[in-house]
Design goal:
Number of helices: 2
Strand content: 25-35%
């Protein structure tokens, strides 16, 4: 879809949502199921994804790690959001690239020494590159 078509679609959605706010509300069920070892299947609507942990910590590496999906969700949300905003404002661009750099301490889920069993995301930064039309 080109930027002009995106702009029209977004303006149409804005018009409908302003007149009928309930049409912008959504409800969905997401399901994550571990069936074998650390391999986890995630499904929502018609989409299914597989997450797993690396072999060195007991997984089978049959899919990206959950933290990979977290970074994917954040970076794609930002990239699509910037693209949508540019289209809405009529700013011509050829594309958007978001580089997300994350530093994390993954000892939390592995260690049992009384530490919290949470993943520690110690630093997150983003870099935006847009290609003007």
């Amino acid at each position: 879809m080109n930027q002009q078509a995106m702009q029209v679609a977004l303006q149409r959605a804005e018009h409908v949502f302003s007149k009928h706010p309930a049409t912008a509300q959504m409800s969905t069920i997401a399901r994550a199921t571990v069936r074998d070892g650390m391999r986890c299947e995630f499904s929502e609507d018609d989409w299914t994804f597989v997450a797993d942990m690396p072999k060195p910590i007991g997984g089978s590496a049959s899919g990206p790690t959950p933290s990979t999906f977290v970074r994917a969700a954040l970076s794609t949300c930002l990239a699509i959001g910037y693209s949508m905003r540019a289209a809405y404002l009529g700013v011509p661009i050829r594309g958007v690239e978001v580089e997300l750099r994350a530093e994390a301490d993954i000892r939390g889920p592995v260690l049992r020494s009384g530490r919290s069993a949470e993943l520690s995301l110690s630093r997150l930064s983003r870099h935006l590159r847009q290609r003007r039309a």
